[in-house]
């Protein structure tokens, strides 16, 4: 991260993080870009900001079309409350073939590049759960360069709960992985879980207050200097975990968004050894990976790995003594309140208490409040 940026540019970038509407974000980004001098040291940052700007403009356009009653454009994907996973990768890696194999949805497949030009949806069933899969136009060309539709695809992927990165075992999968990771990084998405957490609440007055749980390179003084250099004078800052100063600056300026991922090394039938090597390499780097062949089955295992990668829990509801057949999917750590909200906004507001059976209950049928944390397989009866 260029520490030698002019102060105004740094202030603008920090301001971007607290911008709320898309219009506001676009405005601040444009201003920030105009304040960053054009030279080698700032090249990467400028490229990243321009990409974010392009993505925001797409999003705005999408909204305008929808508001004007023109219906959704062919690129819009409605999430409709489903848990969703998006396929991304290099062209011809077999994304559409995998979507078909996993959901039966007819997403066009062909042996030439760029067959998929808009999102295709399919519904995957896994032990009673329905998970929406989205097939997307490829991010990389056969030469591993960014495609024209990459920014739109990433825009959809950003709203998904999981990125399924499909690598082609017959074409240097590890190099594909590196190209995709760095492209995502340019769009402000990281696949690596952060080792720390930063919360910053800006205030109108009162100076800087800091709570550090863990270790920050340089300690309080260094954090204070960094924050001040970004034009933030009053704020409550909480940092937990261990963090270096450059990571903290990156977080304050660009706030990369973490996305869960699963790598599928496809076409393993064409190069088994290379697929195995890629899976091993990815696992060593801390990622989830599995080899596959869209032509040779193994669908159940793929489904299971997708489900695991989502890191969700299955919760059943009980009404008048009857337990629902299908579970609802909730994020790990979800509470009774989250469950009620998932069923209906109004439910959450009227929620009085719940009874719980399953691993999270101390005694079966235990009466619990809003903030009771649920576990996989729990059965919950909601009382309004
Ligand atoms: N041998 C082999 N061929 C595969 C496999 N999966 C897909 N293919 C073939 O690879 C070609 C591309 O597959 P698609 O599913 O269209 O690939 P895509 O990633 O959706 O590609 P685009 O949408 O065109 O960017 C097709 O000819 C598929 O039949 C696989 O596991 N093994
Ligand atoms: Mg396709």
Quick structural summary:
This protein has 384 residues and is of the alpha/beta class.
Q: What would you say this structure looks like, in words?
A:
The protein has 384 residues and is α/β, with parallel strands linked by helices. The mean pLDDT is 91. The radius of gyration is 23 Å and the shape is globular. Helices cover 37% and strands 23% of the residues. The strands form 4 sheets. It has a 6-stranded mixed β-sheet with strand order 2-3-1-4-10-11, sandwiched between helices. The protein folds into 4 domains: 73 residues, Methane Monooxygenase Hydroxylase, Chain G, domain 1; 161 residues, 3-Layer(aba) Sandwich (Rossmann fold), CATH 3.40.50; 63 residues, no CATH class; 72 residues, Ubiquitin-like (UB roll) (Roll), CATH 3.10.20.30. The longest helix is centred in the first third of the chain and has 25 residues. It contains 12 helices and 17 strands. Helix 2 packs antiparallel against helix 3, helix 3 crosses helix 5 and helix 7 runs parallel beside helix 8. Magnesium ion binds next to helix 4.
